[in-house]
Amino acid sequence: MGESTLIDGKAIAAQLRAEVAVRVAKLKADHGLVPGLAVVLLGEDAASQVYVRNKAKQTLEAGMASFDHRLDAETSEATLLGLIEKLNADAGVHGILVQLPLPGQIDTARVLNAIDPAKDVDGFHPMNVGRLAAGEDALSPCTPRGCIILAKHVRGDLTGLEAVVIGRSNIVGKPLAQLLLRENATVTVAHSKTRDLPGVARRADLLFAAVGRPQLVTGDWIKPGATVIDVGINRIDTAEGKTKLVGDVDFASAQGIAGAITPVPGGVGPMTIACLLANTLDAACAINGVETPEI
Ligand code: NAP
To answer: Which atom of ligand 1 is nearest to the CA of 272?
Structure first.
């Protein structure tokens, strides 16, 4: 086999953000409506701060309003719930995202459940989880939504394809499996108790790795020609005493066996914020009873 096709998540995400920006401009022109995204961050975690800064920048670039709420790490649950109540009632806010993980004094489930499901652009509220499972319209989690866009970019229609998702977390694996069902793929969800994981993975036309184990999936787990979407983001030490980011797939051994593969970084990562913007646009339209503008 020749080289695997590299799936350029950075370029595909840029294209999606550009499309969102055009739709936002139309929404503004036709309905005088500006979608607004509120992001709530507690504490000083460096990675979260970078992530939140990028979200705000890209929200503004798409022509939307961005509202940053930075609270200190000692903030009480009652104060946070009070802020969410205010954002739920604010007509200029259509999306609310609480950056996870939250500090220990706060019950994460209670906070996520307090977000108005219509503004739940992360898609973590039980109402949206249930709607997604029931095949109804729902705000779906951003990373899985991004994975589907990448898979369709390579394969077009996913109907009838064998999809294997390694990982069953509530934020990636499970919602990704639901979205794949919606695309008429035949879905297997594997996890830490799966027997013969390499054998299960080898069945996949579409292999998704969302495990959090650096380079777990090696080339011999991959069916020749399969599309491999690597969700993992892991920091490892290099021989030179530095650190680098790697995925859950061992890129070097997968290369040449996979038909197409996402790099880490530059694959699924950039899709997440782009899908957050798309979700915020969808939420603004749904809340105001208007169709998402066509382009
Ligand atoms: P998680 O909550 O820790 O879930 C990991 C899943 O992998 C669990 O279902 C676990 O199985 C399974 N697993 C663990 N070890 C395994 C093994 N040896 N063999 C088979 N399955 C195994 O992780 P997550 O939040 O889903 O995130 C997964 C990865 O995606 C992480 O690297 C994370 O950083 C990355 N991520 C990236 C983005 C992005 O690109 N924007 C977004 C979210 C997450 P059990 O359920 O049996 O324990």
So the answer is: 41
Q: Answer whether 143 contacts ligand 1 (Cβ < 6 A).
A: yes
Decide: 293 and 36 in contact? Cβ < 8 Å. no
- Give the number of the atom of ligand 1 that is nearest the alpha carbon of residue 166: 21
Q: For the whole model, what pTM was predicted?
A: 0.97
> Under CATH, to which class is 142-270 assigned?
alpha beta
Q: Is 16 helix (H, G, I), strand (E, B) or coil?
A: helix
Q: Is the CB of 54 under 6 A from ligand 1?
A: no
Which residue type does 179 have?
L
The answer to whether the CB of 270 is under 6 A from ligand 1 is no
Q: Given ligand 1 and candidates 172, 213, 229, which is best to mutate, with the most ligand atoms within 8 Å of its CB?
A: 172
16-50 pLDDT per residue, tens:
999 999 999 999 999 999 999 999 999 998 889 99
Q: What is the DSSP string of 122-174?
A: T--SHHHHHHHHTT---PPPHHHHHHHHHHHHHHS--TT-EEEEE---TTTHH
Domains 32-117 and 142-270 alike in fold: yes
Q: What is the CATH number of domain 32-117?
A: 3.40.50.10860
